[in-house]
Amino acid sequence: MSGHRATTKESLPVRRQPSETAKWHMSREAVDLSVPEIQGWTEAQCHEFLVEVRFGSRETVSCPHCGSVHRHYWRGHDNRWKCAFCGKTFSITSGTVFAHRKRPLKDLLTGMLMWINSAAGQPALELKRHLDTTYNTVFVWQQKMREGLVRGYNVGLLSGDIEMDGAHQAGRRSKEKRGVPQVSRPVETGAEEKGLTEMMLTQTGRMKANRKKKESGAFDPEFGRKLPKDRRILFAVRKRSGRPGKGAVATRVAVGLSETSPVAEAILKDFVAMPESWLNTDTSPAYQELGRRFMDHRTVEHSKEFSGPKGQNNNQAEEYNWRYDRAEKGIYLNIEPKYLLDYAVETAFRSDTRRLPNGKQLKLALHVAMSVGESLFWKGYTRGHHRKVELIHPAPQPAPASGPPKGTDPRRRMDARPPR
Ligand SMILES: [Zn+2]
């Protein structure tokens, strides 16, 4: 029986040690809320969950009309409170991004738990299938969570050991794919007669012309030429934990048209207490002047080394860029520049809360989303009210709705699908 089986320790195949991340995800503590658990709740239990998330308790309910904190009068017949001071009524979602909702709370909680559980992000189409509802419903839910994080999480100053890095994102033919049916192009007639050399010549010529046409965006000194029109630079600003193996503890993200000093300055002003901090960047000229406002500025030249002679590195900011790439290339596929920040903030939140149990992660995300007032970006979206600005640094810029106008084409009024 023992024939060919190795028995000595030395001859056993080497087993890889599980990483700290793997240990965490396999642990019992990593999961403290599940879809079957929520599905077993009554609507009243879902309500109690959200009372705790939004107000802390029934004793400390805050009236969205006048702001008074009190044990307001609860009306069980329509599930609303009546304010003890101003007399107006409100529900658990009044005055939040989820105001005027139509779906039951159980669906909302289930959907948002599924969204939280997907570590890299979740396609709206997948959630639509899970919940058997409309695409618009789940798409707007997800976007409202992102809005909550943009307005309630990606704010405030960081201090301490700060890493900053910009990464090229978007601008990969994203515009031409929007609102246009993706049908295959008809085969060009007469292509067989053309010689191969001639075809290649015209092909190269066409590519050159296309590139020139596309390069109408900002000039980038590092890139050495004008960037494609839809290209954006995604900046990650991260605070190191200062403990080995623990990575970054807080992240702020911002979008700019180029990696230049004015853009970097605007971002640092918004997100970093500069005199109280150390700055770690690559050798991009964007940070050279700005670095002097910090206690110290350490750089690492990435084309030559991962880490400088004194251990200078930008690994946490790089880790964030890698995470965003995973979300865009693996899940969301073709993020419109106008909404790039929203997805980037989602990724930052997921990264910062990676070691929280999933139920706590959900509570935190919902608390933030329910603390920024009603939705400014997505209210009335399905009726054609779209955000008209792109939230970039140094200043937001106008960004009209992309795609065909919704419900306004007179030719389609009678026979087309309802406007959306
Ligand atoms: Zn009131």
From TrEMBL:
Ranges of residues in domain ISXO2-like transposase: 157-352
Where are the residues of the annotated region Disordered? 1-25, 168-189, 392-420
Listed under GO biological process in this entry are:
endoplasmic reticulum to Golgi vesicle-mediated transport; intracellular protein transport
Q: Listed GO cellular component terms?
A: COPII vesicle coat
- Start-end of Basic and acidic residues biased regions: 408-420
A molecular function GO annotation? zinc ion binding
InterPro entries, alphabetized: Tnp_ISXO2-like, Transposase_Zn_ribbon, Znf_Sec23_Sec24_sf
Q: Please give one Pfam family short name.
A: Zn_ribbon_IS1595
What this protein is called in its record is ISXO2-like transposase domain-containing protein
> What is the native source organism of this protein?
Pseudazoarcus pumilus
